[in-house]
Structure formats: structure tokens, C-alpha cells
Amino acid sequence: MVRRVLSLATGRIALAVLTVIAVLALFGPLLAPQNPLATGDHPLAAASGAHWLGTDYLGRDVLSRLLDGSRVSVLGSLEVAFTALAIGAVPGILSVHLGRVFEWVTLRLADTLVALPFLLFAVAVIALLGNGLSQAMLVTGALVSPLFYRVARAATLAVARSPYVEAAIVSGASIGWVVRRHVWAKVLPPIAVALAQTVGVGFVIVSSLTFLGIGVQPPAPTWGGLLASDLGYLSHQPWAPLAPALLIMVTVWACNLLADAIRDVSGEAGRALVNTRKARANRRREADPAPAPAGGVR
């Protein structure tokens, strides 16, 4: 699947952008030219050689705060996505194989989680457990998990009625073996699409919570927190919110672009793409004349 995604221009662009974001998350605090928490004597300064993106209302270097805050934003979005994957995908696959009672219970739980507004629920959990980003992301991941549940369940239902799966069950194969051998390969592509989309949703969720001051307390920098603080000084720096907003927008766009690329190369569409490229390669080989032998014909 990775080779197919890289064969598409959209897949290469999305992976390149997300690689840059991952590098910022890993090495952003080390690349920060100044201390992101150190205040200065020149608040709301314009861009200069000393401060490439200017300073905020306390004189702190904006570029350093963006680089330092990238790790929190990326880790928070990944925590949302993988929590939702773990909570939703496994019950979705097993609901097809473990009987009517397990299926009914998991379906009702999924319907309940869909009905809960994640932002209000996250605020309520933080009020009970304390203001921390990890618990907020875990709760939000649980509320997003019905997406993976329904995707995994739909893909598993399509495979469960296949003759080779029924033959494996009749021959005495365990549910775990059937899932590992037959089901997982068919369920993986739609789950990969949902995972890429959920990472983008996670960025929006983390930015929304930190914009409201939930999860990470100032002065710790986050992209959402920088956006919120810059909005209060638009009369002095109308361009200030552009940098954090652009980072959030580009990251979410790259996640959605990657999800589209995975969808385009998986399933029937992926096989059609491979067959089309093979046909084009065969036509090119047939169209190219055979090279003449060296030295001529004797």
C-alpha cells in the first residue's frame, strides 16, 4: 500500500508535509532559536533578524513558541487517533463474530458515544480529573471511536460472508486465526483511511481545546494557544494569527489528502489503478521498436 500511495502525486505531497510536521514535533524544541518562555523588552515587535516572526505581547519570540508547541499539538492529535482506533476497531471486528449479545451491546455503546458532544464532555472530564491534555485526549478519542467501530464492522461484514471465511470456520479455525489470516487484510485499508482522517480531526480538537485554555496551562506554548493570544492584539499585529492558523490548516489538509490517496489505491480502485498502469506500460513496450543489433546483419 505504501508504494501505491507514493505512486500518486497527492500521496507524495501529503507524506512530505506530514514528515515536516513530524520533524518539527521531534526536534522543534531543539530548533527553537530562543527560549520560548523568556519574556523580552520589545513586546509586539515586527519581524526582524532577531525575531523572524516577531514577538508576542510579552516580548517572547513567536517562532520559538511555534516550534516548541508543535510537539504538544502532534502528540495530542496522535493520542486522539490511536485511542479511537484501539477502542473502536477491535470491538467493530469482533462484533461480527462474537454473537448477538456482544453485537447489540457494542452497537448501543457506539450510538451513545456518537450522541455525546465531545467538547463539552472533555470539559466535564477535565473538571473532574484536573486540567491535563492527556485525559482530555483520551476522552475525546473514546468519543471519536464510533467512526472506527462502524468502518471496521462494515468491512468485516463484507468479509465474514465470504466462502473462504465460512470454510475456515467450518473446518475448526478459531476466531483469532480467522481475523488475523483473512479479515485484517481486508479491514486494514478502510481503517487506514479513517486513521488519517482522524489525525486531522485530532489536530482540530487539540487546537480547539488549547484555544480555550483547556488541557495546557499558559505559558506553555501550543498552536491553539498562540492563535488565541494573537487574536487579542489584532489592532497591533493583524498578521500575527496567520502563522499558527496556517500550520493547523496545512496539517489538517495533508491528513485529508493522505486519506484520499489511501482510499484511491486500496480496494477495487487500487486494483484498477495498478491494472491501468500495467496496460500503459505494455502499450509503451509494444510501441517502442526493437533496437537494431550492433554491427549490422551478416
Can you walk me through this structure?
This protein has one domain (51-278): Orthogonal Bundle (MetI-like fold). The N and C termini lie far apart (50 Å). The protein is an all-alpha fold and 298 residues long. The longest helix is centred in the middle third of the chain and has 37 residues, at 175-211. The protein has helices at residues 2-7, 9-31, 62-94, 100-115, 118-129, 133-144, 146-160, 163-170, 175-211, 223-231, 242-265, 267-287.
Give a short overview:
This protein has twelve helices and no strands.
Keywords summarizing the entry:
flat; mainly alpha; MetI-like fold; 298 residues
The N- and C-terminal alpha carbons lie at a distance of 50 Å
Number of helices: 12
Per DSSP E runs of 2 or more residues, the count of β-strands stands at 0
Could you tell me the CATH topology label: MetI-like fold
Summarize the helix and strand pattern as letters.
Answer: HHHHHHHHHHHH
Topology (elements, then pairings):
Elements: H1 2-7, H2 9-31, H3 62-94, H4 100-115, H5 118-129, H6 133-144, H7 146-160, H8 163-170, H9 175-211, H10 223-231, H11 242-265, H12 267-287
Helix pairs in contact: 2-3, 2-11, 3-4, 3-6, 3-7, 3-9, 5-6, 6-9, 7-9, 8-9, 9-10, 9-11, 10-11
